[in-house]
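Assess this:
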Amino acid sequence: MENALLIGLSRQTALARNLDVIANNMANMRTAGYKGEELMFQEFLMPVAREQDMPGRDKILSYVIDKGLARDFAEGPFQPTNNPMDVAISGKAWFVVETPHGERYTRDGAMKINDRGEMVTTEGFRVLGDGGPIVFGPDETDVNIAPDGTVSSSEGEKGRLRIVAFQNEAAMLREGDNVFSSPEAPTIPEFVRLNSGMLEGSNVRAVVETARMIDVTRAYASTVQMIERMQEMRRDAVERLGAVPQ
């Protein structure tokens, strides 16, 4: 009975974690460049006992644990904004930004100019070009981003956005603020085009996430009911044993 309770608890914990992941996906359905996540599960077999001389042989018990997160790096839908500072990447590539923890990578192309004239993301990270940060003067106007990443203004060319790619995107780690790090060195991407006046939307699909949330919620409720029944059986057994005449 204790084993059944522990197995149920392991499933309940994994489902709660899965519900958190789904809720985070749904909360970021309008976040530019957001990549959806899905929890991976793994079977964990017990026991570790090796003594087989007991009257009842050791039984294999199957628990469930969450192994980690898998991310969907598929391209999200493009949304026109008519803002020349917004730009979306067509192809497997990333913008490079400067954060307090070093260079990081993002698909969020919502750019702006801060009070120091620097091109930054909505989180305030400096956007890096091939020659470093891209900086504008106080009187410059008509900012434009060409399909090859060249940034220009009324004063002429200001630099070219640094765009990179990775051989194994699955190894990239989300670090918050819609930026990623990677254990591997970036490479120069192929077949990449920048689309000015557009943003890449989140690749999370509302219908799919809603259906997943309903399934997980039902499974969680079913597990709770199973654990409650097991606890009732345990209480009944204790009460019956206590009622045995001496």
Remarks:
- Residues 83 and 197 are 5 Å apart (CA to CA).
- The first strand starts at residue 37 and ends at 46.
